[in-house]
Amino acid sequence: MNVTCLTFNPFQENTYLLHDDTKECVVVDPGCYDQAEQQELKRYIEKNSLKVMRLLNTHCHIDHVLGNKFVADTYGVELEIHEADLQTLRSVPVYASNYGFPMYSGMEASANYLKEGDTVKFGNTELQVRFTPGHAPGHVVFYSEPDKVCIGGDVLFKGSIGRTDLPGGDFDTLINSIRTKLFTLPDETVVYPGHGPETTIRYEKQYNPFLR
């Protein structure tokens, strides 16, 4: 599986495109807001002859959902989230203007909600869905066992963790999610977070000050 990261919007959010040699592709957390960012995403997909099969959100805070409608409309895919983050998604239009995104267009998620233990399939690739609340009530991560890659959203960062002071956040819940759902992965697993550089499970076990 190939992992491509495109960083968008003032929050410097990491949007991920996952694809394999079949050219089938999933888009995770599209943060592209304005036309220039949308076109950057579209150009990458066209240049690499990718076929977008699925649209996934790790969670539904504003910086991770700004491009949902663009991707859904452009590629004819439905939005897939965990049901516990439905209220998080539906609240975004209420406060989008206050965060400087007056042109945000909301959309509903598919009723086929992601849940713990699900498998997301595209091409020759399978991703395990792991439920990791704490930063957001319906946060999930996506893990490829053969590739030892985890698309981690805002759960774990290099040397840090996701914030827990937003609605639905809880510090103890987040720490438990990291210890039971991420730190049980192989140490060499690469974690691609929602912001900043990638890290590894081994590095975070050794150096993350929140998890020693």
UniProtKB/TrEMBL annotation:
Domain Metallo-beta-lactamase, residue spans: 12-195
Domain of life: Bacteria
InterPro entries: MBL_Glyoxalase_II, Metallo-B-lactamas, RibonucZ/Hydroxyglut_hydro
Key words of the record: Hydrolase, Metal-binding, Zinc
UniProt key word Metal-binding: yes
Presence of the UniProt keyword Cell cycle in the record: no
CDD domains documented for this protein: metallo-hydrolase-like_MBL-fold
Cofactor: Zn(2+)
SUPFAM superfamilies: Metallo-hydrolase/oxidoreductase
PANTHER family: HYDROXYACYLGLUTATHIONE HYDROLASE GLOC (PTHR46233:SF3)
Protein name: MBL fold metallo-hydrolase
Organism (species): Pontibacter aquaedesilientis
Taxonomic classification: Bacteria, Pseudomonadati, Bacteroidota, Cytophagia, Cytophagales
